[in-house]
Amino acid sequence: DVGVGSIARENSALELFGSEQDDKIHYGRLEQASGGTLFLDELADMDLETQAKLAGALENGSFLRIGGKETVQVDVRIVAATHRDLEREIAEGRFREDLYYQLNVVPIQLPPLHEHIEDVPDLLNYYVNYFVDQEGLSYRRFSMAAQNRLRNYSWPGNIRELKNLVQRLLILGSGEEISQEEVEAAISNTPPSKAQDVSDIPLSLPLREARERFERSYLLQQFRECDGNVARLAERVG
Question: How many domains does the chain have?
Fold first, then answer.
């Protein structure tokens, strides 16, 4: 499972095809998935150079690792997804036509989230519980006003956008309830409010509250340095 949109564009080829340097081999996702299936999410975010290399690998059943000299044979099934109109991306020169036809063997059209907006509250609750269980984040519930705002949002990024939104609000927010104001800031990409300086945290606070304030300040700073990219933030802070 490769989330193309969460990989820096300059690293996408390295992630897929691996590399050879100083007698050290880094095995890419294609090679790791050989004999099985590889899921590429947000395929349209892939740069044209990597698209060309992937098209060649699918056509020939082989590729060169970055910096490598020996051909690597690969037999892999690709399942890809995107929320963009690939035919429009092709017309505007952002996606390769040959790769489109190589992958468009059994197309499946899923309705965008804005066409079944009644599912939004259940999806919000599902992902809150998911991140609480899988990542140990503190439980927070969406206020009714916040839910109503998200029912009226267009969701251009569909389910992935909703999932990332929930993760961001759980990581960066505090308090048991997620307010409409927090949601407005998140969907408009407004930077979080300035974090409290660590030196300003009162030493008289109970340890748990002091730790929560420190973690919030730390995460807000890291979030700004990651330009609001939650996936990069998660990778950076571990």
Answer: 2
